[in-house]
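Assess this:
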Amino acid sequence: MDYSYIINHLNEERDDYFGAVSPALIQTSNFAFSNVAQLRKAIFKEDEHYLYSRGKNPTTDILCSKLAALANAESALVFSSGMAAMSSAILSLVKAGDHVICQLHPYSWTKRLCSKILPSFGVSVSFADGTLTENIIRECRSDTKLIILESPNTFTFELQNLAEVVSFAQEKEIYTIIDNSYCTSLGQRCIDMGISLEVHSMSKYYSGHSDVVAGCVIGKKELIEKIFVNGLQNLGGILSPFDAWLTLRGLRTLAARMEKIAKTTAQVVDFLYSNPRVEKVLYPFHHSFAQYDLAQKQMSWCGGLFSILLNAKDMHVVENFVNKLKRFMIAVSWGGHESLVFPACAAMPEGKPTGHLPYNLVRFYCGLEEPGALIEDLKQALDQI
């Protein structure tokens, strides 16, 4: 099944909605039944019937079917945020007494989930530098139930060798879950590689317009059904039908936006790499990246997110550079139509670098602006430091 069919037509029964080209928005909390027997059937099979929109809803169902098909997976669930998706999936797979391995530098709230929340429920967690698979293997124990991956991460872009990790995990009957927000299912075929579950922050590329906060989990039907009951229904982090509808709208242009963004970013990265005021560029598809060969092997696109290390003697120089930019908005997140910049020092107490990120790291996201305009903006800001 080709991507264009999935994005534009899959599971859109237009004859049921007056021939409408755009999918119907079923903005309802509740569903009525003709008789008690139908109600009873829905109550005991809520994963198969429309009963209450905390579970299934026709609009979110259309989105779920497309997400699963794009990943070549059996099933998918959508959530109110990427962290709702990640938390629900993890909490549905582990219990007190289990052990989890997480790659060293995940998304900050995933790290908090692993370092603070899971241990409070009796789940032990080890962090491993996943740039070498042997580091993950070394942390494995007899009670290890889950390996959490994020390849690449979204500040320094370290990768894990997914084929190696999957081979080890399958041999030991350990679940694997990956945050694949950076690449999307089109850019990195995680399910095809044998990953158990794929998680996305759909606030990024899938919705694409910076007007939705959403997440999803994709994988085998058996695991998705477990997460439906234990994660979605109990924790309640549901996606509203309207936000599902907005994400469907954004999904229509996913491939076109990805292509445009990738071309723009490659030009911007080349400019920054050659500028003497830039100490280093961190971008998996640039030849200077330490894991460039692995990125080329397991990723088919690299997106618009990258970082630089600025030649700056202190934090104030970094802040002045960022403040001089005109076309890059200062903000968190990424994946929308607009170009963004986020200096790591913004998350550091004044004058006190903390954590693994250096004070001179600046993260950029290239949106849908023309590359010449973005390069000119970077040039004028760099010339002033």
The chain has a mean pLDDT of 95.
